[in-house]
Amino acid sequence: MPSWIGQAAHRGILTSRYPRAPATEAEVPMTARAPGPPAAGPLPAAAISVCPVGAIGERAVDQGRCIRCARCLAHGLQPVGPVELTVARAEALVAPPGARDPPAPAPPLASLGRSIHVFLVDVGSCNACNLEVLGIANPLYDAARLGIFFTNSPRHADVLLVVGVPTEEMVEPLRRAYEAMPAPKSVIAIGACPISGGAFRGNPGLRPSLDGLVPVDRFVPGCPPAPIQILDALLTVSGRNRREG
Amino acid sequence: MDAWGAALTVAVATFFGAAAVAAIRPKLGYALSAAGAVLLLAVAVEALVGGPVRGAAWSGPLGDPESLVLDGLSGFFALAAAVVWIATAVYSLTYDARRSPLLAVCFSLTLGSIALLVASSSFLLFLIGWETMTVASYGMILQALGRRGRVFSAAFVFLVFGEASTLFVILAVAGLRVGNGTFAEVPFASAGDLSALVFVASLLGFALKMGVAPFHMSEWLPIAHSSAPSNASAVLSSTLTLAGAYGLFRVLSLLGPPPLWWGAVTLGIGAASVLLGALFAAVSEHTKGLPAYSTIENNGLILVALGVALLARAEGLTDLCVFALFAAFYQALAHAVAKTVLFLAAGWTEHVTGTFDLTSVGGRVKRGDRAAFAGTLAATLSLAAAPPLAGFVSEWMILESLFQSYQFVPAWVQFLGLVSGAAVALGAGLIVIAMVKFLGFTLLWNPSAAGAARRSPGLAVPIGAVGAVVLGLGIGAPWVLRFLTPSVAAFSGFPVTAPVGGLLSVPNGWSILSGSPFGILSPPMVPILLAIGAGVGAAYYLLGRRGAPAARVTPVWMAGSPPGRDGEVYTSFGYSTGLRIMMSTVLGTREIRSGAGPVSEAGLATPEPYSVDLEVLDIFKLFYDDLVRGGEALATALKARVMTGDLGRYLAYILVVVLATVIYVAAAFG
Amino acid sequence: MTRSAWREEPADRFALTPDRALAYVAPEGAFALYNDFAARDSVLATGLAPVPPAEVVAAWRDQGGERRPHRLVPPDTVEGYGTFTFPYGPISMGVPESGRFDVVTYGERVLELTPIGGYKARRTLPSLAGRPLADAALRIERLAGNVAAAHVAAFLAAAESAQGTGVPTRELWTRALAQELQRIYNHVHVLGRIAEAASQNVGSAETHALAEQILRLQGHVFGHRWLFGALLPGGPPRRLDLDGRRALAAALAPRSKEFEELWELFLDSRTFVDRIQGTCPVARELAVRWGAVGPTLRACGVPWDDRLRVPVVPYTDLFLALPHERDGDALARVLVRVQEVRSSFLLLEQLLDRWPADGGAPEEAAPPVAPGRGLGRVEAPSGDLVYDVRARDGRIEAVAARTPSDANWPLFSFGMRDAVFTDFHFAFESFGLVFAETDR
C-alpha cells in the first residue's frame, strides 16, 4: 500500500484541468477538429470526390458524416474550428464554407441539475467509441470530479450515451433502455455512426441514424470523438460548461 | 358441574358427535366441529378469566376418578387450539369438497381426541386421547391425494414415530403412576431417579411429537404434513404439536423443582431445532414442506424458552423464570395461529394452481382474494418475526430471556445460554429467508404473468380472519400477556404477575418488560410509530408530486432483453442455492450429473440433453436410514438363529421364561 | 529482406498453410465464418485441426445459427430441477459492448454460459465488394476499433497477396510498429479491466491512465488515437522521421518503466492474484481441439504465435520472446499478456533502433492462394487473425475473416462452466473478447 502512495506522489497530478482551463495539446488529438475549407467559396472538387462517405458537398461539409479519414486534407481542406463540437441539432453540423467559427453552442438542459448519471448503449459500434466513453473515467480526465458517474442501469440514468450505427437487432433494446429511464432525461449521440451511419452508412439491416428511434438532445461528431469532447457534451447537458457561463 | 362445566362437556362431546355425523354428511361434520370449537373457545376463555372449569366426572375403569377439567394451563392450550380449529373447520367446508367422508371423520376425531387429552384430569384419559389422536391423524394423512405408495409410506412413517412417542409417554405415565399411586394429574410425590426417569421419558415422548431435534430429521413431520390434505396439515402442524407441548408442560408442572440439567437439555434440544428447522425451511421447495420445517423451528423456540425457564427456576431466578414462561406460551400461541394460515394458504394456492411446488406456483396466483393475500402476508411476516406481529413479540421475548443467561451461576450454563442465543439468532435470520421465499414465490413474484384468476372466498376468508388474529396478538400483546397470567401461574406453581408496565410517556400497561426490568418493548407503540412514519412519508410524497407528471410504468429492465420470457425467470430453488452451497456440510449438498455431459467434454456426435441436479441430503435421515438397515439386518439374523420355526425350540423358550419369572417372583416376595 | 512474406511451413498441427487456409476461411458473401456453414463444411471435409467436430457443427446449424442474434458456441442442453436461463444483455454495463449471455443456472453456479452475438452486426464485409482497396480498408479499420491495426495489416497483406503487389519494407515496419503499440494498449486495457473487476481501485486507475497515455502516443505518432488510417496511403500524417522516432523512443521508455512498477504491485496483491487464479480454466486438450488462439492458447502451454510461425518482415529480423504459461486459467492468460507487453516494448525498441534507412526494395507479397485471392495472417492482441481477400484491378471482390474472438468464444463458454456468477468479469476480460470482431 505505501508503494502505491509513493508512486502516486512521485507522478503528481495527471488529471486534466478541463473545463477550468482549455484542453491541452496532449488531450486534443489531430482528428478532434473537423475538416473545413480555409476560406469562403465553393469547396474543391478533388476534396469532394475523395471523401469516402460523401460528407463534403459543394457548399458545405457535413461534420456529422465525416469519419476523420483525413484524405481531404491533401486536397485543400484543413482542420478548422474549436475542439468543442457538441450541437443540439444534427443540421448544425453541416458547416457552410468559410464558417470557421463553431455552430452556436447548445443550451444546457438545466433540469438535470449539476450531477448526472450516465448510461452507455452500444447499438452497433466498432468498440472505439465505447472505450473513449469509458475513458472519461480514467484519472487523466476523471469525470467524477465534475459530478459525472456511470450507472449500471438505465433506471438510475439521466443521460443515455449512444454509440454505434443502429442495427435492426438493437432498435428494441435501445427503446427499452430509453423507456426505462426516469424523466427528465436526455440522449447524446456519440460519434459519426449514430448521427449519420458513419463508415457503415448504407449497409443492409442498418438504420441511417437515430432519427425516429429515440429523441436525441446532443450530437458529438467524430470517429471516434476524443474523451475531452465527450466530457464537453456531458457538461453542456448539465449546464456546467464554461462556454455557457 | 356448573353451566361452564356442562359447556365443556358438550364441547368435547360435539367433536365426537361430529365425527359420527361426518361419516354420512361430511359438511355437517365440519360445521359441527366448528361449533364445538367455538364452544371450547368460550370455555377456555372462562377458564383463564374465571378460574378452572370442571366438567363431567365419572369413575374410571381402574378405580381412579376421571373428569374433564380446564385449568389455567390446559385452558391456554384449549384456547390456542380452538382458534385454529374454528378457522380450519370453516375452511374445510370449501376445501374438502372433493375428498372422501373419511377425511371429515378423522378430522373431527383428531379434534375431539386433542380436546379430550387437554381437558382430561388423569393420565389414563390423557393416554386414551393421545392414542386416538395418533390413529385419527394417521387416517387423515392416508386421505392425501397422490401416488398411493408414497402416501402409504408417508403415513406409515408418521405412525411409527407416533407410536414411538406413545411408548415413551406410557413409560412416563407409568413412572408417575408408580410414584403417585394414581393416574390423576397431581403433583409428583416421589423424587430423585424416578422423577429423572419421568422427565427423560416425557421429554423424549413429547419431543417426538413436537418433531424437534434430533427427531426432526426423522422427517415424519415434513413428509407427513406435506402429503396430508391442507386442512389436516394445519391441524397436525399447529395443534398436534401443540398437544405435545401441552403434555410436556403438564408433566413438568407436576414434577417439582427441576435440577439444572433438565433445563440445559431442553435448551440444547430447542436451540438445535431452531437452527436446523430454519435451515431446512430455507432450502425447502414445497409449499407445505417449508411451513412444516418452520414448525420444527418454532417448536424449538418453545423448548428454548422452556429451557431458560427451567434453568432460571433451578437457579432461583423467579423473575426470569416467569418471563421465559410467558415467552414460551406466547410463542406457542403465535406459532399456532400463524402456521395455520400458512397451511391454509398452501391449500389455497394448490387449489388455484394445482401444485405444491414453490417454483411452479411462482407467478401463478393472482391477488384476487385479497383476504387470503393479506392473511398470508401477516402470517409469513409474523413467522419471520417482523413487527408489529405476534411472532415478533414472542421472538423478542425469547431473545430477551436468552440475553439474561448471564445471571446463571455455573459458567457452563452461561456458555450454553450464549451458544443457544447465537443459534436462535442465526435461525431467526434463516427463517426470514424461508418466509420471504414462501411469500415471494407464492404471492408476490411476477404478478404480471398470466395466471389462474379463480377466486375462492370460502378459502380466503378463514385465512384472512386468522391473519387478523396474528396482527391482533402482535399489537395487543401486553393485554394478552396479562390474560395468560393464570396459565403461567398454573405451570410454575407460584404467584405470577404479567411482565407489563410503562415507560416515559407510554401509558402503564402498554409495554412488556423483560427481567426486572431488563429490556422493554411496547407492541402497541410499534404500529403507531410505523403509521406516523408512513403518514409523513406519504404526505411528503403526495405534496412533492403535486404538479409533477403522472407516474409512468415501464417493464422491468432486463439488460435490454424482453422481460419475463418463459424459463427465464428466477426460480425459488435458485433463490436459496447460495445457502445450499454455503451450508453444504450440514445439508450434505451434492451435485448429481447424469447423461453424457456437454459436447465439449463428451466428444459427442450430437449434443444430448444432460442433467445437473443439486441434491440436499440430510445427515439425520442418513442416520435413520442406517438405523433401519441395522434393524433389518438384526431381524434377519434373529430369524435365522433364534426364530427357526422349530416347535421344540419355542417350547424351550417358554420354559426358560416361566422358570425365570418364578425365580424372580420367589426372590421378590419370598 | 527480400524473401517472401509467406513461406511454406513444415507440417505443424497448428500451421495454416495456404491450401488449408483456403478451406479455413469463408468464401465471398459470408458475413462471418461462424455464420457460414457451407464454408464450415468444407473445412470439415479437409479434416483439419483445429476446428470443432463436424457433427457438432451440423447440429449447431440446425439450431438457428444463421439467424441473428445467434449463439457463438455449440449448443448444449442442460436440465435439472430448479434450473432456469438468466439472460444477461444485450445491454449491460459490465460488458461495454452489446451482446447477450444466456446463463443456465440453478442459482449461484453457472451450468452453461452461451454468448449470443449478432446484435451489432454491421454487415461490413459484404459491403466491401466493388470498393477500391483504400475505401475497403477504411471500413476494415472500423470493424473493431481497438484492434484496428491488426485487422488492417491482415487485410492489406491478403489484398497485396491477391494482387501480387509489392510493399515497401518501411511500410511493413510501420505496420509492425502500429501493431505492437496497439498490442500494448489492449493488454494494458485488459489488465485494467480485471483490476477494476477485482476492486483494485488504485491499480485500475493507474492502469487505465497508462492505457490512455498509450492512446495519446498513438495519436501523436500516427495522427489517430485508434490508428484509423494510420497504415493507409493518404491517411493522417505520420511523424516517423528521425526526430519522430527519437521522440517516440523517449516517450516509450517511461511507459515501460511504469508498466513494470505497476505489474510488480499487482503481483504483490494477494487479493488480486487469488481472485484470478484458477478462474475459468481452459484445459490444453480442449483449447487444441476447439482451436483456441492467442494468449488463450499460449496460457495452456501451446507456444503458437503467428509472429514467429508465419514469418513476415520485420519479425523475421527481430528478437521476440514467446511467453507461455501452463495452467490455462485467468491468471495464466494475464501472465502471458504481461510478458507480451514486455516483449512488445522490446520489439518497439528494436523497431525504432533499426528502422530502415530508406524505403528499401519492395518486399514481395505472399503468393496468392488462388488467382486473385490472397490470405493475410497476423497475430492480433487476442490471437491469430486471418483475412481472405479476393481482389482484382485494385477493387475488392470479396472478403472473409476469421478473428481471434470467433475462435475463442467457445473456450470462454466452456471455461465458465461450474464457475459462479461473480467470476464472469474476470473470465470474460481475460480472453480479450470483442463482440465487434464477431458481429461484422
Assess the beta-strand content of chain B as a share of residues: 5-15%
Let me know the number of strands of chain B: 7
Instruction: Look at the structure and give the mean pLDDT of chain B.
Output: 85
Q: Total helix count of chain B?
A: 25
Uncertain residue ranges of chain B:
none
Work out the count of structural domains of chain A: 1
User: Average pLDDT across residues of chain A?
Assistant: 85
Provide a descriptive summary of the structure in words:
Helices cover 22% and strands 13% of the residues of chain A. Chain A contains 6 helices and 9 strands; from the N terminus they run H-E-H-E-E-E-E-H-E-E-H-E-H-E-H. Chain A has helices at 2-11, 45-50, 128-135, 168-180, 192-196, 227-238; strands at residues 34-36, 61-62, 78-80, 94-95, 116-122, 148-150, 159-163, 186-190, 218-220. In chain A, the strands form 3 sheets. In chain A, strands 6-5-7-8-9 form a 5-stranded parallel β-sheet, sandwiched between helices. In chain A, strands 1-3 form a two-stranded antiparallel ribbon. In chain A, strands 2-4 form a two-stranded antiparallel ribbon. Chain A is globular and about 55 Å long. Chain B has 5 domains: 1-169 and 215-243; 262-509, no CATH class; 516-543; 576-615, no CATH class; 620-669. In chain B, 69% of the residues lie in helices and 6% in strands. Chain B is globular. In chain C, strands 1-5-4-3 form a 4-stranded antiparallel β-sheet, covered by helices on one side. Chain C has helices at residues 18-24, 37-45, 54-62, 133-141, 148-163, 169-197, 201-222, 242-268, 270-276, 284-289, 295-298, 306-309, 330-353, 404-416, 424-431, 435-438; strands spanning 70-71, 77-79, 84-88, 100-105, 110-117, 373-380, 383-392, 395-402. Chain C is globular and about 65 Å long. Chain C contains 16 helices and 8 strands. Chains in contact: A-B, A-C, B-C. Chains A and C meet through helix 1, strand 5, helix 3 and helix 4 of A and helix 4, helix 7 and helix 8 of C.
